[in-house]
Amino acid sequence: MTPLALPVGVRKHLLNMSKLVSLSVASVKIEKLTIEEFRGPVSIRPQMHLLLRAPTGAMKSTILNAIQKQTSTPKRPNEIISEVTRAGLVGSIDGKTMQLVEGAAWNCRNNILLLDEFRFNRRSDDWNIFLQLLEDQHYSRKLGIFSADKELIEGDLHLKLKGGQISLKTRFACIIATMKRFQHSTSEEFKAFVNRCVPYEYDLEIDEIDKIISGELDFSFKELKPETEVVISKGDYTRIRKMVKATIKESTDNVFTQKQNFARAVGDICRIHAITDNHDKDFERSIVKWKCKVYDSIGQDFKRRREWK
Questions:
Q1: Is the pTM of this model over 0.85?
Q2: pLDDT lower than 50: segments of the chain
Q3: Beta strand pairing call for 40-44 and 32-37
Q4: Taking the CA atoms of the chain, what radius of gyration do you get in angstroms?
Q5: Which H helix or E strand runs over 24?
């Protein structure tokens, strides 16, 4: 029997998400990414964070479970979490034993941090710490409680607690799935969060969902093996900046969106180039367009309600 042809929509979405997940997972393997700027070499974050946005029932959890299964090892099983707090991210002190309990940012080192339908505590401190970890993956703070000293080291990464001072250096890529509509969000923290990720919005028709839950179609990604240290040459960096600038100007008339996303989009494309070492111009341009489209949509419902009054 000739197998049924897969709908164009689901082929496109799963192909795009497979590419994005492959890149995000591979980005964890890069320990140092250097750009040869005109003023000299500059290091940037190698890890590529991915934000998947889809309505209820669009198989987000199914995709995250597939990623979890394919990235977990017996020694380092991946966990899917749904709430982000400072204690959950960087660690906390057990009230009975006074010992340090490691947080998700350390436990997922050199791996993927998976967030499903994540919720944030309204405390801005939680947001700021999460944003800091996404960007530079360092954290240091004096804790207001006595605890036993502890030191965990893995290569160039560490989690240290000494004299009440906690210090964390980790390396992870974050893959987030949410049904949260960007149009309903207005906070600057949320904008900064989206800005640090490569966003992808999608939806599936019922026939497409049926093919997934029946097992006719599965989600998988390709294992990529970049070098642990990568240098982006001046020539490649110039090409990337020119492409991103032109694509952003084509994608939106919103000057605010253009300026807010330019440097971040350049960084995203540098990270992709560090992994693939080639120029997939169409896919790179698509990533920049997705970023602009999502950023333009943030707060639009609030803006429309305000205009109707």
A1: yes
A2: 1-7, 305-309
A3: antiparallel
A4: 20
A5: helix 8-27
